[in-house]
Amino acid sequence: MQPRCGVSVCHVLMLVLCLSAAEDFDWTKNNHGSFYYGTFPTFSWGAGGSAYQTEGAWDKDGKGLSIWDVFSHKKGKIQLNDTGDSSCESYYKIKDDISLMKEIRLNHYRFSISWPRIIPTGVKDHVNGKGIQYYDELINHLLENHITPIVTLYHWDLPQQVLQEKYGGWQNISMVNHFNDFANLCFEKYGDRVKHWITFNNPWSVAVEGYETGEHAPGLKLRGTGAYRAAHHIIKAHAKVWHTYDTQWRGKQKLVGISLSGDWGEPVDISNQKDIEAAERYVQFYLGWFATPIFHGDYPQVMKDFVRKSVQQGLGTSRLPAFSSQEKSYIKGTCDFLGIGHFTTRYITHRNDPTGRSSNSYFTDRDLAELVDPRWPDPGSEWLYSVPWGFRRLLNFVKTQYGNPMIYVTENGVSEKMMCTELCDEWRIQYYKDYINEMLKAIRDGVNVKGYTAWSLLDKFEWDEGYSERFGLYYVDFRNKNKPRYPKASVQFYKRIISSNGFPNQREVENWRRKAVEMCSSSNQLLAAEQRSTAANILRLIHPLTSHMEMVTEIVVPTVCTLSILISAVLLMFLLRRRN
Ligand SMILES: *[C@@H]1O[C@H](CO)[C@@H](O)[C@H](O)[C@H]1NC(C)=O
Ligand SMILES: *[C@@H]1O[C@H](CO)[C@@H](O)[C@H](O)[C@H]1NC(C)=O
């Protein structure tokens, strides 16, 4: 009797395990609680940036052209026709930037390796020694200062000349092998010191903005097909690199993951099944598009169902490419940790595309409408509303959908509008405080979050938005050719969170905020003085009536602020009317 009993216990256990593995995320459970005071378990605090956004030195020391060099040099693609040519000049400021990280006692720094800096053409015929050396120095200095490097291999800067121009970039399946060669070189050169690798940063953006809308490099508008095809190749490339690492380089505590971005989608009406399904589609078409193949081997069923609709239009095959069964098992499980980039949330409602399906696109495939609550704060980028509770829900979704993987938050932060520049960024303090708190609640829910990366360390080149949006904990004066950095109030606040490893109690946290704001006003004066003298010097060169001109600039800045507030108000009204 004993063995049989054992078997049945085993069965019950298995059943329980199966049930919990198949546990569904509950879309109707809504728990926006109050602020939670407490500390984190063993945790890694960091900040990040990426090569094209910060390095500058776009044509120095043998670097090849990337698709972003070429794209940003075309007029009309980037706000004010700005480029990343010099950006923060981080290429020359390794020591300065690391001292900023030390100042706030970061545990890790996330950066990316520019592929064309170390392999100028992209195909491994020639390796650029000076490029190799730059990242060697960066990694060594980080380690000397006890800061763990978390390294992204692909943060959007594909080599231009051969890979994009001749081969068509991510539309071409051969990128899988070229990317694997590049990744293998990085493992060989840096893997003795780098233990955390991220294959791709936000492939959603690469696919949709690079190949569907064309807002990002390479600027292609292959509506309805380009994004799906690019994503298909990116997923295969990720899997191949993970296998290369797994078979050739893995020692102990060495991890390869991917960094996926995803907004949270909340049903407008949680009692309406159609809205719940639409919200799920929103998240599945965003995060799930990449996470589901990597964790379960294939695209989300809902994507296969909704993209396949084109079959009825006589296209014959789905615009969503399919994985063979061999590919599915090769791709499944290729993730030692999941990087999550998260900034904002949308309300989602079901909507059939009014234009019908004559114009296929990634966006119309989803049959939904995105809405925002006008009460949500939106201090910076027009898409970025502060909705902290959405973060907790997304993290819980990841836990239930993908078997509670190890998570590093690889990007989270908020921008500000260019003209209203202020070092006393209380709204950013509020954003970080609330989002980090929701992450703490998620960890208490059982989500396996191991680290957090504030996005970003410095103000930097924000892709098609140029320098018009600032995400930094440190302000960078881009008009000054030395690109000096100034601490914002938020960096003081973040430093306190790091040193306390959480939020000890209300009084203390309130104290941090007050002190941070006090400290920043002196930095503010310093910055203002610097900027006045820079502006005065420039004006003196071009105009003798300097004092008159200075007055004008002082009037212009507040006017631009007022104007942008007015425009936002009008846009908001417009949005509200559309919503009704
Ligand atoms: C950017 O370049 C385009 C094309 O040359 C030009 O029309 C536009 O005015 C420029 N924008 C700015 C802000 O300089
Ligand atoms: C894809 O890349 C390969 C080289 O890796 C090249 O031979 C081929 O022509 C490319 N295909 C297209 C359509 O550009």
From TrEMBL:
This is Cytosolic beta-glucosidase. It comes from Poecilia latipinna. It comes from the Eukaryota. Keywords: Glycosidase, Hydrolase, Membrane, Signal, Transmembrane, Transmembrane helix. Residues 1-22 form the signal peptide. The chain crosses the membrane at residues 555-576. GO terms for molecular function: beta-glucosidase activity; galactosylceramidase activity; glucosylceramidase activity. It is an enzyme of class 3 (hydrolase).
